[in-house]
Amino acid sequence: MPKGLPEGELPPVVVMAHGMGGQKDFGLHKYAENFAQNSMAVFVFDYRGWGGSGGEPRHWLSAKRHMADWRAAIAYVRSSMAGSVDINRLCLWGSSFAGGHVLVVGSEPTIAPHITAIVSQVPNLDAAASTKTSIKQRGVPKSLRMLAAGLVDLLRTAVGREPLYLPLAGLHGSLAFMQMTPSELERYHANHPKNPQMTPSELERYHANHPKNPQGGWKNLARAAYSAEHALFKTSPIKHVHAITAPVLYMGADKDTLCPMDIIKRAVALTPNAELYAADCDHFELFTPQHMPGLQQRQLQFLLQHVGQRKEANAMQREQDEAVAMAMAASFEQGGEYEEEAVAMS
Which residues does residue 251 pair with via DSSP β-bridges, in sequence order? Predict the structure, then answer.
């Protein structure tokens, strides 16, 4: 929660969650603290089965489940936090996998009217395109092995057996859900000089930015079932962006191979009210000190602009409602009927 607000003033609130296999203790505090220092409340959550959240089995990667968690988080903020935050100024923030989730959830008819602004950072947007890229990188045989592993995982858990897991992150050609080039891993690791000699097969570059003792016993694994879900029930956020009513700030990286810039530009063109922030880097370099300050500054400017506009609009609406109520009361006191003309001045 922010400090130093005028008495009686409720802060806008940003709901945040991490990307694929990410948790709130994997660096989201850098964003949350920046927002809180600038008069915004922040609600950060972990998905079921990850980090500080409960739920079994652990490490269950699922777009369907994650988006259900987003809906639950938004509902909680709007109901249980209504006395401490301004629920009429509610913003969504998601990165990578979650960058797509916020676009889908933020476009839904029951949620869209309540959202003031959305930040979608290097979002995963097109399931079909990502599937084609994935098959190209690892080949058809390994791709079929992953699909088979996903189906086996579903069968195992259906009969009460332990889940089957696959690596979450790895190099191109591996059986990992996120495939990275050596150069991406190198750039990601560039800001972590403590482990300069570790090999790609151990994926230290990926883990280097994670806490030493992450919540929930995090490992570089995810349920194999996601490969089956992704293949059979493709979720493509880009198909939903046309229905978003809130302004959207897309953050893209020109050298991103996981969430390519060309697809982000397509989403920007399809979104009714969208802006694009582009950085000359890859997916993970975006989070380094070289790029982070500019990233945070632009996000902050965007959110403050739109929560400020919503605050002014809400104040004008309150004044109008009060004028209508006063005119109605005066009309009734005089024994007459309320006429719409009486409040035309508002």
Answer: 121, 277
User: How far is Cα 110 from Cα 112, in angstroms, rounded to an integer?
Assistant: 6
The structure tokens listed for 97 are 């996998």
What is the C-alpha to C-alpha distance for residues 99 and 67, in angstroms, rounded to an integer? 11
Predicted local distance difference test score (pLDDT) of residue 196: 32
Q: If residue 42 lies in a helix (H) or strand (E), which one and from where to where?
A: strand 41-44
Mind spelling out the 3-state secondary structure of 167-222?
Answer: ECEEECCCCCCEEECHHHHHHHHCCCCCCCCCCHHHCHHHHCCCCCCCHHHCCCEE
Burial class, 147, CB count within 10 angstroms (exposed 0-12 / middle 13-18 / buried 19+) = middle
Nearest to 20, CA basis, from 130, 74, 99, 115? 99
DSSP 9: P
Model confidence over 228-274: pLDDT tens digits? 999 888 889 999 999 999 999 999 999 888 899 999 999 999 999 99
Give 170's strand partners. 179
Query: Mean of the pLDDT values across residues 104-125?
Result: 97
Task: Please compute the mean of the pLDDT values over residues 322-329 and round it to a whole number.
Answer: 65
Whether residue 57 has a cis bond before it, omega within 30° of 0: yes
The CB-side HSE value for 252 (13 A sphere, CA atoms) comes to 22
